[in-house]
Predict the 3D structure of the following.
Amino acid sequence: MVSSSVVDTVTGPSLGELWKTRHDKARYQWSSLGLLTPTFALLIFLFLVPMGFAIYLGLTNLTLIGPTAVHSSFTGMQNLIRLKGDTTFWSSLWVTGIFIVGSIAGVVVLGYTLASLLMRATAWMRIVVGGVVVISWMMPAVTAGMTWYASTTGNGTFGTLFGHPNANLLDAQPLLVVTLASIWSMTGFSMLVMGAALRNIPSEAIEAAIVENASTWQRFRMIVLPLLRPTMTAIVLLTGLLALANFSLIYVMTQGGPGNSTNILPLYSYQQAFTYNNLAYGALIGNVMVLIATVFGVFYVRITARRI
Amino acid sequence: MTPDNVLESTLSTAPATEPVLPPENRQTNRTVARSLTLHTVLAGIGILFLAPMLWLFLASIDSQASWGIEWPHFSLINFRHVLTGSLLHSLWNSVVLAVISTLIASVAGVFAAYALSRRRIPFKGPLILFIIFSSGVPLAIMVIPVYEIFSRFGFLSILPTAVFLSVTSLPFEVYLMKNFIDAVPTDLEEAARMERASTFQVLRRVVIPLALPGIAAAAIFGFVNAWGSFVVPLILISPANQQPAPIAIYTFLTLPKAQFGNIAAYSLIFCVPVFILYAVSSRLFREGFVLGGGVKG
């Protein structure tokens, strides 16, 4: 595979060199280091170092402005104790959980429904409906948040559509509405990936089940679901990770309000760091997010690595 | 995005499975009814997905737009208003931010992807797992410690932010490009090696041209990621004249006398590059991998 060893044999290395170098395996090449350096330097300095720094930062009294902005000191467990008694944090964790679970459920169910229905639909339907769903996925978060705000506030599209034009849905059910917006903005991806996985299911398997008189539900449970499980797991984990970090959509729509009803962790972390100037405390809340993301990420690595 | 699945979706060119034909004619009525239900359900979902976007389109061509939905007073004046002054400058900032971050991530990424695909490297397995892990975890959650580091070095401006944004898309780009390079046959590379081409020459003359669809797709992913990013520039860019378009849109919203038509028109313009690039990338994926012809006998 690596031809430098071939070149060596042509020019004829000494017997001693031949003894030392194994020719059945590719050798390490120093240029590999040069090829890997830019990527891993970037990842070390802007991912691993900040991650380590954040752990320290979370245990200090650093603020955005004031005397402790310049001379901060290590305060040990103080922030952790504060976090433990912080009811806003616990409610934020709860809201984050609902938001993530709701987003995952919606994205998986809608993505599967759309993918399987579109497979049997006419080409025209596939282009129009598929296109609309993909566009809603591609739309940048700020724009998505804004247009959802407009659609769910008083006189908005949804209120008008359901016959209550003056209803302010966003105020009435803030968490539900932002979760729906989050589902809307991620279903396109799930639909495309599920569609690809569905097309990979051998049609013989389905035909055999039809010959055996299996009902639609049985076909789904016994054939489609097991074959789709790895794909679904990947979608569940990625949707969870994206929902966890979905700052922009909610920030534009509600800024975490009314009250703290949509205040998911990234918003609360931002609020503490940049609105209340408690940079260190904000970093600590960020660390909680990193912890959750790591759990999801490890599972994601496990299912992805199994397929390589 | 999951790297694997994107590839799967692109590689499977198999047409959608045809509906299984009913064995007897008396079932035809049931099939028709079923197809009707299917299309009604689909149309319903489609309308629900379209509904939130409706405001954006209608308000952008409405000279008297509000937050509410209404029949527009048709005019294109909104588009003319927003393509001037600081708003145009913000779009330009977005271009700078996205282009620089895409360049950094794609160049660094293609080197790493090549090495991880072809070379024998110590700890290769763990390195790849680390890449997969960081491609799934949204690295933007690192923004507070990065803010503190940047502020100590006086880096709170557009260029360092572009570098950080490149890192947020780098792992996925590496993984995507590695998968594409894996699929490039090694024969051509070995031939180039025999002619004593350097590593850089092999990359530039053989690997990059052959894996171009994958590299382009990865670059498009990086561009779209940086283009739409809101929270990272919000926190990391402090000079007002360096703010990209998403921040301009948000600032627009918070103004006491918001010009809704202008906001909608500007947002629509802001979305256009994303839609175009998505269309290009899905084509790239479909047409990618016609490498077989490069190697003969």
User: Anything to note?
Assistant: The first helix of chain A runs from residue 4 to 11. Chain A touches chain B through 120 residues (CB under 8 Å). Residues 87 and 93 of chain A are 10 Å apart (CA to CA). Confidence is low (pLDDT under 50) at residues 1-10 of chain A.
